[in-house]
Fold this protein.
Amino acid sequence: MTVERAAIALGSNLGDRAAILSRARAAIAAFPETHVVAASRVEETAPLGPVAQGPYLNQMLLVETACGPRALLDALLGLERAEGRVRRERWGPRTLDCDIVLYGERTVREPDLVIPHPELPNRPFWQRELEELHVGLPV
């Protein structure tokens, strides 16, 4: 069993945002073969994209996991659904957004899973949160 470190970004801008992030942290910690190593501080950020919506609370988790990238993504998507996320429009508001930003040194290029996350260079808050967790950015 190979254990790797992954950086998971959490975001919420609907409902009780802080409670949703708290539940997400607890749920991720309970994923099989997964342990939360560290969590960045929670920060409020302006929404990205063309859709008018309220501000987000964001946080980055560093986990150690034996789940492969696909299994981890599937678990995160299940968590989003459990928190009431409905995918209506790209860049739209959401109860919970979970993104795998980094997964060890791996590069993944699949239609619905790209690691490192392609938006990492465009999200300074993710960069700050990774720095806070002492995770180096990919070159």
User: Anything to note?
Assistant: The mean pLDDT is 93. Residues 69-82 form the longest helix (14 residues). The longest strand covers residues 56-65. The beta strands are 4-12, 34-39, 43-45, 56-65, 97-103, 108-110, 113-115.
